Amino acid sequence: xxxxxxxxxxxxxxxxxxxxxxxxxxxxxxxxxxxxxxxxxxxxxxxxxxxxxxxxxxxxxxxxxxxxxxxxxxxxxxxxxxxxxxxxxxxxxxxxxxxxxxxxxxxxxxxxxxxxxxxxxxxxxxxxxxxxxxxxxxxxxxxxxxxxxxxxxxxxxxxxxxxxxxxxxxxxxxxxxxxxxxxxxxxxxxxxxxxxxxxxxxxxxxxxxxxxxxxxxxxxxxxxxxxxxxxxxxxxxxxxxxxxxxxxxxxxxxxxxxxxxxxxxxxxxxxxxxxxxxxxxxxxxxxxxxxxxxxxxxxxxxxxxxxxxxxxxxxxxxxxxxxxxxxxxxxxxxxxxxxxxxxxxxxxxxxxxxxxxxxxxxxxxxxxxxxxxxxxxxxxxxxxxxxxxxxxxxxxxxxxxxxxxxxxxxxxxxxxxxxxxxxxxxxxxxxxxxxxxxxxxxxxxxxxxxxxxxxxxxxxxxxxxxxxxxxxxxxxxxxxxxxxxxxxxxxxxxxxxxxxxxxxxxxxxxxxxxxxxxxxxxxxxxxxxxxxxxxxxxxxxxxxxxxxxxxxxxxxxxxxxxxxxxxxxxxxxxxxxxxxxxxxxxxxxxxxxxxxxxx
Length: 599
Fold this sequence. Notes:
With 599 residues, the protein is mainly alpha-helical. It has helices at residues 16-21, 35-39, 82-86, 156-172, 176-185, 187-190, 196-205, 212-223, 230-233, 241-255, 261-271, 281-292, 305-329, 374-398, 401-404, 409-434, 453-473, 481-504, 507-510, 518-534, 539-560, 564-577, 591-596; strands at 105-110, 128-129, 135-140, 146-151.
């Protein structure tokens, strides 16, 4: 008999791990491993026989009455109540002692300015009666931080949750485990806002243990890389992504009524795919995150260590979403500027480090699996946080409403003053770029791996262009020719570098995860060229920017079929600058045109 014995026993026999876990061993057609072993990168073994059954004191001929026979436990994917599905498997669960991760509870942070008085929590009974017989539970996680935990109303809402989950699962059946595995191979290694161990533990029991929008969002995001899984790539038909997205967004509205960390996770995943600039979901997620307390340092909280790391990763992912939303949506950032020196900021999240990724077991990152290198993905996420902090300071200094308005700070100090403000920021940005490890350099593309380095370097370029765009905007007819020449020469050099960056992206970069801001970052290059064109005083110089725009369009066109962000960037550039090549050369000789540009 072979070591695995996979072909020596009938398929209904459970493997050793499922037998030990006392769960049903589900095996997809054409797969060597069961669902649980496949998700955890293990191999099914059949080395142990069934455990001997305990004999009762009854005689061999005695038959237990039918009315007293115990019903067999439901399978992970069959119908049944939550208690039936999870009671046996919740012993020693990673979810024990967590905050904001329980399926039927949601928690609310009590802030220092709230009418609630944290000091009085210790005087309260363990449960507080509210209206309609609802009871809430105060919970102190450290001496100064407390929450109130509420039970979800489990009548119609619970029935709807189960119905939504069944509908979501049916829409992708039998590809669920394949999509989950694909998600953790690619998306999770670059955008680590889930805890892999917790997700797989729950998924091995039942898909019904999730919130509908999170389950749908994981499936939906994974579908974007369907060509990187042979089962999906060769399937006769694949799930309808548009229908799945509709189910996710509808379920999200219901989930916001009883928010948990899973609600925040689902929202962040959905935002990576949403293109509308009119969505209010980013603001809703920030409010939700504050309700869940992710904006607070949880280092000394009485919760599991792995949840502390998860909360920090979620907090900084929300921070990145909010700060780059300034570029995407044109709305001010909602998270306050971090004030590390004064200690007055309401954003009090500890720095995210490699220690905040404890769920990745050694040996799970298989070589040549076509996904993202785990260590490089984590490093890129940490560097994105630092870069976003820099971008936030640049925006608050050079692009705030009060600074850019007529008569505002930038107009009062003039181009030379703005250069003085910009120099230290540009120096910090240069130091960040110089300090990048070799694994995050653009040229570093491991064999048979996707690389997220392209997205990181595009964010860096967009940050640089934000500085130079602010300098171009403050030029006036009174600016000295030497200063004007210095600013415009530097801006032209940055435009050339940006064009070279887009052109240098390899397939390993293009096919990787880019994030919600990528299209706007590329479109910024087009609008930057348009700004240089609009403020040009020489016909030859202006014509050169038209050529640059046409080249940018061509670069995006040849990549658009493989990169959704490139298609969206093309649309945004066309909407922003149109077809400058159609503008007649005579326009630049028209003195009225020169007057309109302030030259």
